[in-house]
Write a structure and sequence with these properties.
By secondary structure, the chain is an alpha+beta fold. It is 31% helix and 27% strand. The protein has 3 domains: 161 residues, THUMP fold (2-Layer Sandwich), CATH 3.30.2300.10; 128 residues, Alpha-Beta Plaits (2-Layer Sandwich), CATH 3.30.70.2510; 111 residues, Alpha-Beta Plaits, CATH 3.30.70.3190. Strands 5, 6, 7, 8, 9, 10, 11, 12, 13 and 14 form a 10-stranded mixed sheet that branches. It has a 4-stranded mixed sheet with strand order 2-1-3-4. Bound molecules: zinc ion (2 copies).
Length: 411
């Protein structure tokens, strides 16, 4: 404390409030407030001055903060009032402080040192946070606040930054006509034009819209974003236990949603298109996990065989694909939007489920990112080896379903 007093004495001729006198020494220890530390220092400084025959430190109007801390109750009122616009369980206060005040604080630091200093912004955030808690009984959350109240101290103006709502689930896509995510019209980029019948969309609906549009009115929100654990082609169904996803709802007014009821409503409104299950609250961290996951996939493929081949030969060929690597050059159908690369992919197994002369049904499990259609037809030799080549007759895919996402997490 002696060294601290020595430093603090350098400010004895300044007009400072207790907050601003204590704050340069905020990190000297814990268990007290800047204001209390400032009051203690003032006593010590005044004792020192008295010993030198001097009167106490002058304090009328703080030369750093202009007595801004007197306004904490008023700021807290403004924040609490603004917070009434949303439903929330926890919050955080952020303040914008007049740059003039900040530069006066820096001047003070240059006088007394800033090794242990805390910026005025942090003290205000904390003090206003405490006062808001006293009014609202809602907790301050430093890590993942549901809402941040941004206060401009010059005008006591408050803006809210509401954290998105994240909901995890698994979906089945029962239609071969809709994409996973909302797809803006290529001609008008979503504005609406004759090409899209003024919908602004390439497709009538999507998994994202079937799920998100039901949630929006309950959350009193306007926008959603969809994060899937990979995606299937539009003409592929997604069956089995479904595909994990997280839907992100921006700026929700209401966060407490009845997820089982929502699940029911989504499924009723999406009959024959989409089914969801296991809805629960999620987080941004989980979005990252879902997007980074590379699970194996299980597929069922209906294949047309354009030539003569017998079942025994098919069985033999399929066996050669068990636990093998294939090399796939970027398929012709996606080459316009993806880099032309060669990738190695692992086939775990391929089994024959049904066989009738010119048709067969296969079930296969492959590494994430395998182009299954190309594995079947060969993509003009861009996938090596491929099924058509090995059978010696051209094969084409009539229908493709994803029947399992092997994510080892749930389900
Ligand atoms: Zn002050
Ligand atoms: Zn359009």
């Amino acid at each position: 404390m002696k060294e601290v007093l020595e430093q603090a004495l350098k400010a004895q001729d300044k007009d400072l409030c207790d907050h601003c006198l204590g704050r340069p020494f905020a990190h000297v220890g814990t268990g007290t407030t800047d204001e209390r530390r400032g009051a203690e220092l003032r006593l010590l400084i005044n004792e020192d001055r008295a010993a030198r025959g001097l009167g106490p430190m002058v304090h009328q109007r703080c030369s750093v903060c202009d007595e801004i801390f007197d306004q904490v109750p008023r700021f807290a009122e403004a924040v609490a009032l603004k917070l009434q616009e949303v439903h929330y369980d926890n919050f955080l206060v952020g303040t914008r402080v007049d740059p003039v005040v900040q530069s006066r604080e820096e001047e003070l630091w240059s006088l007394v040192g800033q090794e242990f200093a805390e910026p005025i912004k942090s003290e205000l955030n904390r003090e206003i946070g405490k006062a808001v808690y006293a009014i609202t009984s809602k907790d301050v959350d430093f890590k993942n606040p549901q809402v941040v109240a941004l206060l401009d101290t010059r005008f006591a103006h408050v803006e809210l930054d509401v954290a998105p709502l994240f909901i995890y689930g698994r979906y089945r896509k029962l239609s071969r006509e809709i994409p996973q995510t909302k797809w803006p019209c290529r001609m008008c980029q979503g504005k609406g034009c004759p090409r899209c019948g003024n919908t602004g969309k390439m497709y009538q609906t999507s998994v994202q819209e079937q799920v998100g549009d039901v949630i929006l009115p309950y959350a009193q929100a306007k926008e959603h974003f969809f994060h899937g654990m990979g995606r299937e082609d539009i003409d592929a169904r997604m069956l089995g236990t479904g595909r994990p996803f997280v839907i992100e709802i921006s700026s929700p007014v209401t966060r407490a949603l009845d997820l089982p009821a929502l699940e029911k409503e989504i499924n009723e409104k999406s009959k024959e298109l989409v089914e969801v299950e296991g809805l629960r609250t999620s987080s941004r961290e989980e979005v990252r996990k879902v997007k980074d996951a590379t699970p194996d996939k299980e597929y069922r493929v209906q294949v047309s065989i354009h030539g003569k081949v017998n079942k025994g030969a098919v069985d033999d060929v399929l066996r050669t694909f068990n636990r093998t690597r294939i090399v796939q050059r970027t398929p012709i159908r996606v080459a316009h939007r993806r880099a032309d690369l060669k990738r190695e992919r692992y086939i775990v197994y391929v089994v024959l489920e049904e066989f009738q002369d010119d048709k067969m049904t296969l079930r296969l499990r492959t590494e994430s990112g395998t182009y299954v259609k190309e594995f079947v037809h060969g993509d003009e030799g861009r996938t090596e080896p491929n099924l058509s080549e090995m059978l010696g007759v051209p094969c084409t895919v009539d229908a493709l379903d994803v029947i399992g996402i092997i994510d080892n997490n749930e389900g």
